[in-house]
Amino acid sequence: MTSSRPDLSTSTATDSARVADVVTAMRAKRPLVQVITNFVSMDLAANLLNAAGASPAMVHDPQEAAEFAGLADAVVANIGTPSPRWADGMLAAASTAHDRGSCWVLDPVAVGATGYRHELAGRLLEHRPTVIRGNAGEILALAGISGASRGVDSAAGVDDVADRAAALAAELGCVVAVTGSSDLVTDGTRALIIDGGDPRAPMITALGCAATALVAACCAACDDPLYGAAGALAMITAGIGRAGARADGPGSLRWRLLDELSTLTADQVAAVTVRS
Ligand SMILES: Nc1ncnc2c1ncn2[C@@H]1O[C@H](COP(=O)(O)OP(=O)(O)O)[C@@H](O)[C@H]1O
Ligand SMILES: Cc1ncsc1CCOP(=O)(O)O
Ligand SMILES: [Mg+2]
């Protein structure tokens, strides 16, 4: 695998404006997102998509997953609580999304933890995701570097993974979105970094999974998945920054985030620092 670190030195108003435009487009489209996700994250992912302006549907069984993917504007495959039947549903939906040219997003939760997750992620990657969204430990695990996670949590930072994320994106022909105290989105040649948010964000269980679902929604409304993914992550950064100003802890941060997302303006998203 080659290592190609993108140049992240400049900051432009154009990037912020493009990211804000993604949010406007997503709300205008109100994309139908098929979210095949883990049991922990279903409630937050559905509520976060609704608050942000998308339409979630949790449809996972292999009896109907491919058929539904034929209707959906985007698909999420999240391996957080995998089992053979759910895996079959994810594979079928990802295959359909790929074949019809719609966006699908992989969340490789704790991919380095067990052989089963590793093998399932490998089978899903054969269906060529549009975006992979994970924390730094998960992206390192996909790049073949073990030991950077503790269960579903990352033991590495986004700075530790920039080179590997770009190389992985180039190798797989997709966008890689790495979240953490800053978020990095890269397609191997271009990169955007989003700064801000609230340091208590990791205390909201399944916020990363919900972010993945919003990435799918925004990519469904945007021709360029680099900006689609950045739009979703900037939306969460703006929402959680505003929520955090009044939250007392992770409980109120969570519900305040949903409230903020439902009223967030494009200008508030454009105010998020986006570096390229
Ligand atoms: N230390 C932090 N400061 C601010 N925001 C954070 C921090 N850590 C994570 N986030 C935000 O929380 C969301 C979930 O990211 P992350 O915790 O990395 O995912 P995961 O839950 O999959 O491990 C992202 O929007 C990310 O920007
Ligand atoms: C705690 C937990 N266990 C299995 S999946 C899951 C949720 C992980 O969510 P996130 O990756 O967004 O922290
Ligand atoms: Mg996660």
Automatic annotation (TrEMBL):
EC number: 2.7.1.50
BP-aspect Gene Ontology terms: thiamine biosynthetic process; thiamine diphosphate biosynthetic process
Catalytic activity: 5-(2-hydroxyethyl)-4-methylthiazole + ATP = 4-methyl-5-(2-phosphooxyethyl)-thiazole + ADP + H(+)
InterPro entries, sorted: Hyethyz_kinase, Ribokinase-like
Record GO terms (molecular function): ATP binding; hydroxyethylthiazole kinase activity; magnesium ion binding
Gene3D superfamilies, per database record: 3.40.1190.20
Cofactors, names only: Mg(2+)
Pathway the protein acts in: Cofactor biosynthesis; thiamine diphosphate biosynthesis; 4-methyl-5-(2-phosphoethyl)-thiazole from 5-(2-hydroxyethyl)-4-methylthiazole: step 1/1
One Pfam family named in its UniProt record: HK
Keyword set, alphabetical order: ATP-binding, Kinase, Magnesium, Metal-binding, Nucleotide-binding, Thiamine biosynthesis, Transferase
Root EC class: transferase
Residue sites binding ATP per the record: R133, T179
Residues that, per the record, bind substrate: M58, A206
Similarity comment text for this entry: Belongs to the Thz kinase family.
Function comment: Catalyzes the phosphorylation of the hydroxyl group of 4-methyl-5-beta-hydroxyethylthiazole (THZ).
Protein's recorded name: Hydroxyethylthiazole kinase
Organism: Microlunatus elymi
